[in-house]
Predict the structure.
Amino acid sequence: MSDPALTDPSVVQPLALASARAEFDAIDDAVHDLLMRRSALSAQLSAQGMKAGGASFRPGREAMILRRLLARHGGPMPRATVVRLWREVISSSLRLQSAFSVATTAGCEPLARGHFGLDTPLRTHATPSRVLAALSAGEASVAILPSPADGEPPEAAWWISLDAPRLQVVAALPFLMQPGQLLPSAMVVAAFAADATPRDRGLLRLERAPNTSRDALVGALTAAGLSPLRLILSADGLRALAEVEGLIAPEDPRLAGLAALRPWPVGGYAEPEPDTPAAQAEPA
């Protein structure tokens, strides 16, 4: 049986439908014009060498773009759709400005594609150490690795041997958290430091004596003015990774109070955005 919405003139209203389609076409043309204008500006920056001597990938700047757009967003289009659209737009500009590529593990490939776009060259490696080796050798612009976790096996705990400050964490994925997600799924590592935003997390690697309790580490960090938001312990119990508020520079004076733990900043990232706007979030 035919759908009356498609055959009954009183339902379809052909003139109204034609008018709506014409408006859709006009909007599509306007959006396309702006995208071409944006791409031309990116190509112009590259041609003029305006980013010479600096990284084209600026994760802090990208985070602030997305935060601004999410803050002004309204209507029925999901926030996740906005982020996906702009991640492709931003990644396209990045590829115009530099020969950008990604190294990652198989498990992180969907996150890498979602953040850096479907057309960005990407190569997967069997282990985190191989991913970091590709980055160190200049075979990739960034490395994407699983987020650190408590007690993970040595071969997975890539942060223990991260050659900071030469290599540092600069971003966390996904930028827009999934419903119910509290922690990032992956970290982005690059051969430059993260650029600061108004809301960042810093990562600090610590060495501890055997049998030092988690509470003792938390106490030492708190006393130094670096209260940990999260504390990850290595499987051998000899190292810890503290996540604190704000990026931590190697010359930060607060590190002096942690000298016994041999603190070493290993980068940081712009805080990801929740899947629900703050104004609509359910009360705690």
